[in-house]
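User: Last request for today: this protein with iron/sulfur cluster, please.
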Amino acid sequence: MSGVTLDEQVRQVVQTGRCTGCGACTLLDEGLAMRLSEEGYLRPERVGASTAAPHAAREFGRACPGRIVRAQRPQGSAYHPVLGPVAGCWEAAATDPTTRHRGSSGGVLTALSAWLVESGEAVRAVGASADTDEPRRTVPVTIQSRDEALNAAGSRYAPVAVASHPRALDPDGVTVGKPCEAAALRSLAGEEPAPLIMSFFCAGTPSALATDAMLDQLGVGADETVDALWYRGRGWPGRFTAQTGGREVSASYDESWGGTLGPTVQWRCKICPDGIGESSDITAGDFWRSDERGYPVFTETDGFSALIARTPRGLDVVRRAIAAGVIEVREISADEVAGVQPLQRNRRSTLAGRLLGARLAGARLPRYRGFGLVRLAVSRARDSVRTARGTFRRVRGGAAHRS
Ligand SMILES: Cc1cc2nc3c(=O)[nH]c(=O)nc-3n(C[C@H](O)[C@H](O)[C@H](O)COP(=O)(O)OP(=O)(O)OC[C@H]3O[C@@H](n4cnc5c(N)ncnc54)[C@H](O)[C@@H]3O)c2cc1C
Ligand code: SF4
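Assistant: Here's the final one, the structure of the complex with iron/sulfur cluster:
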């Protein structure tokens, strides 16, 4: 790839369906900005003259998760085949009931962000929140107080490019982002000091058009003003909810994520080796209660997060947050977490099959290093072969999202 310009590299990643929409490339060139594509996914576009440094194309090749993702092996962590590096693992919840209620699961990421900025340990946190002008859409935001952290609480199942925020890489802050954003920021930082990176388990980014479809199903017209919109939280798992002109409409997590949002997850997320935030310092996920078959039960209750410290820095922050009474925890094993995350478990252990099927059908794929995908696939040989065949057919037939 040496000699290929940044623009050309970005174009190739986008055109071959490998772009996650993380936005990290816009940090390398202010003339690039993230824009919604016709299909409703965020993609980098040239909007102004290039400000790229001479080494920008090389940095892109190292950091863009559409090009390469490397599994991390931080000092002091053990590598779990499904959950990645683990230095500490807990069931956790915010001790403050409001924060716990507003969060997606236990409100742990919000509690940590609020504590770190209010104590002055971090200058700011960068996260994602509803666009104040148009809550149908999600934007990266900075958080400098508990109230701002509460406003940004809860998962948003829609495109937002947190790694495009100009402060996302500042070493005096905290950045909360999807696993691909964590990976891109970690790679961009390289040996330089990085922000504290927090991430969460992620099944992928749905199209922004799916949010519009949800509103349509709930009887909110395209021309109506939406005052507030959230996807989860305010309960566990919480409901997709929109407020418009004094009226509130909502749908269950199962109806919204399962029925409308989840099915539009972009192609790149379906071939992701890291739905679990391996490159972060701290990761949170849902610590679902499960039924007798091991599948999550979505009955509304007080939320619990699975919390994983991945690096010595992350472990130190979690331990101090426990001592300060910011979060309450119960130590658990990584196997217990993997046990209540069937999607992450199945996806990772059959991913090699999916990649093979896609490759044989002619798809161009990112390079993945150090994830042990082949070893996992061997342990699920029959499922992997079935996945390879199915993916081959879907990619050949053009049924996979390639945008
Ligand atoms: C796209 C997506 C897919 C997910 N898939 C899974 C899954 O497969 N399994 C699972 O267990 N959980 C999944 N989650 C939920 C996630 O794991 C929970 O947010 C996690 O349990 C953390 O809970 P919490 O209560 O500690 O977080 P909270 O306290 O609610 O904090 C959430 C933090 O994430 C930030 N954020 C919200 N949405 C986004 C976004 N789209 N992009 C970047 N940052 C964002 C917020 O700004 C906030 O800082 C997903 C969330 C998202 C957004
Ligand atoms: S994956 Fe991220 S860094 Fe790569 S092209 Fe897409 S937005 Fe840019």
